[in-house]
Amino acid sequence: MVKIPKKVAERIAKGVGKYQKILRTAKDRDVNESDTVTIIADMLAEIFGFDKYTEITTEQAIRGTYCDLAVKLGGKIKYLIEVKAIGLNLKENHLRQAIGYGANHGIPWVVLTNGIEWQIHKIKFERPIFCDLVCALDLTMINPRKQEDQDKVFLLCKEGIAKAAIEEFHDHVQSVNRFIIGAIALSKPVLSLIRRELRKISPDVKATEEEIERILSSEVLKRDVVEGKSAEKALKRIKKVLRQKVRKRTAKSKQKIVPENLTTSEQ
Fold it and tell me: Percentage helix, strand, coil, to 5, in the chain?
């Protein structure tokens, strides 16, 4: 993770602590969406460090539709924010609306929030368009002075955006998650390793890689880790990496072989 400057860490701690009280009061009052937008605009300035008048825009027009807030740096939109009333639970249809805004304008980063819950999504410009949930946090539940919680808030801070902290965090999440780890566990090198270790424990028992794979996928790993789109995507990624390694080894082996029909002088 990108190191948070001390001044920014202090701003996050102070700002989050202040707005935790404001957000709880606003929820008790069940304020409407418009008032929630006002609170979030203030938070973007006091917690996340953006200039309220030059870097935060409201009702950003995107091809005939509008999103609630947009954050700019250097005149370019860095992420869009779709706001719902503080008393509403964030739902999938809210996310689809936010993704539509980002996709229409080529903006990959979209935030869905009701002021308390914040979801950071990255749009994948593929067919069909979909998105990855990069991070989610409840601002009323985090410890504003805890490093791990500050790191998540920093992703959306002005300084974090400038240092591409959100991209680095996304790359980490893409590589270190239960689906990738599950796919690695079911890969041929790992299955082969487990088979060898089982032979050491019980030399007379012959377990096949297929049997080990079946036990891992049905009895050891959770079902949602090995099934579904995310699991399939992770499996494809691991297989691709393994194929690339095989091709590299093959290419190196060919380079080491000296053709038999060369004479000593030719070599």
Answer: 55, 15, 30
